[in-house]
Amino acid sequence: MASPLGLALLAVAASESMDAMRVAVLEHRGQKRATAFETMSANLEIYDLQIQEAAQRGAKLLVTPEDGLTSFVGNQRALWWDYAASLPEPGQAEAQLPCIEASVWWPLRRLSCMALRHQVALVASLIDMKDCTEEPEFPGCDSSRDGWLLLNTAVVLDRDGRLLQKYHKANLWFEAALDESKECSPKTFSISGFEEVPFGIFICADLIHAWPPLELVTKGIRHFVMPLSWTNEMAQMQPLGWQQAWSHQMQAVLLAANTRSSSCSGSGIYVQGEAKAVAYDLEAQADQLLVTEVPLRLVEPAASPIGCPTSSDTRLLPVDEGSKWKSFQLDMTPGDHSSTLCSAATCCHVSYRSRRQGEGYVLAVLNGLDISPEVAPWAAEACAVLPCQSSSDCLTYPSEALRQHSAKWFGEFESLEMEANFSTTQEVFPQVLATSQRLLSPRAWHLHRGARSGAETTLRLALNGSAVEELVSLQLYGRPYSRDSDIQQHCHCGPKVEGVLV
Ligand SMILES: *[C@@H]1O[C@H](CO)[C@@H](O)[C@H](O)[C@H]1NC(C)=O
Ligand SMILES: *[C@@H]1O[C@H](CO)[C@@H](O)[C@H](O)[C@H]1NC(C)=O
Q1: Can you give the residue range of the structural domain that contains 370?
Q2: Is 351 in the pocket of ligand 1 (CB under 6 A)?
Q3: Cβ(464) – ligand 2 distance below 6 Å
Q4: Strand 121-131 to strand 61-63: parallel, antiparallel, or no bridges (unpaired)?
Q5: What is the distance between the alpha carbons of residues 285 and 28, in angstroms, rounded to a whole number?
Q6: Which ligand is closest in space to the CA of residue 351?
Q7: What separation in Å is there between the alpha carbon of 448 and the centre of ligand 1?
Q8: CB 170 within 8 A of CB 181
Q9: Are residues 227 and 332 both part of a single domain?
Q10: What secondary structure does DSSP assign to 264-313, as a single string?
Q11: How far does the centroid of ligand 2 lie from the alpha carbon of residue 332, in Å?
Q12: What is the pLDDT of residue 454?
């Protein structure tokens, strides 16, 4: 017979499970072996141990990184066939319990058995294959290079082993061997026991694009999973800064699982910009599992994203092909300073007090296209304060120097305020990287979005006190999605205005 205390505890447990859910993110170092079978087996063995630990720590959902089972196989298509198979569609008979279906590709079978055994829902990365001779109508088949599609895919296995969902990555990044998904249906899932909470799925570089993330936000989704394999080379594209900023800007819960290597790290669990758990280590050999609780219902209002492109915007706002980042070395002699740097209509102003001159900081500004090798350029307007010696390339993130010397080696601030004027209304992602905690709470940002005059947007970001002492870099990164090229916009998002063509 339950005592009153026991009943009270039961009631608490029930109400807890209604309000929150324990979730896990694995930052995983991909194992590489001689063959596809050996490589995937080695990684699956690690997943098996990690899902067991996640289960023991109470997690109901585990997110693993992009390429986590295959590792990055390379840029030749021929290398990928052994790592790919035609995966069943959610809802098909084979998808009910792949664990016991001999016809299902073995890595998916093993993932299903793992999820079932530990009763933890699992998000994992596989390569789905489409035979265009069998399915000529499948989106993208009309432009298939060899009669097949090789799709970078996130699969979701429910806690009962069922294949719940499958999402094909829409925005590839340096993945010439694979095919970009042309499907325009965003993907969500709800795991058993938590049916009322839909999660949206996207992968890595999708985060900086309008589709599918903004489409999902516009549909009211507040919880997201993101497998990624996002490297640390680019100063303005640091994975932790982007994850936190996206969660903050979209007022969403984000579970981001990155690959771990000497050039790739940064995973986290975020609730409306607050980092509940973060992993970042460019040297660790072992994997890192993050487990924490996230709320199921968010009391603060949802974001209503702006700047979701329509086909007419693309024609109205041509991209200035010539634009590049400009930078300016900041005067770090101790004392008060201010500097302004503009690029076309984007203007950045910083006022700061320097405590100590170090190797140097720059103010950098971009209006136009941001670029990375073998990636379609994307439109951006940004202002950044970056640690950089005068002689070096300021958009290469100085991971090694930061590790050896910490940020103070580049100089020390006592206060710093940035004002940025952007030429059009757009989503602006505020990003502050710090030394010891890696990320500060957005409460320390003192972010102010000024009144818009005409199409312009003014933002101010101020750091002081202990927050600025921790500073590594700071940026306000705007994404005028409507200026992206058609390559970036194969699906349109946001509320559609029926029958109106401007
Ligand atoms: C930004 O715009 C405001 C309003 O037009 C102006 O007062 C301010 O000086 C501008 N700041 C910069 C850095 O251009
Ligand atoms: C930091 O700056 C903000 C806004 O500029 C100000 O309100 C706050 O009092 C300052 N805090 C400290 C510790 O200086």
Answers
A1: 319-489
A2: no
A3: yes
A4: parallel
A5: 9
A6: 1
A7: 14
A8: yes
A9: no
A10: B--EEEEETTEEEEEE--SS--S-EEEEEEEESS--SPPP-------HHH
A11: 21
A12: 61
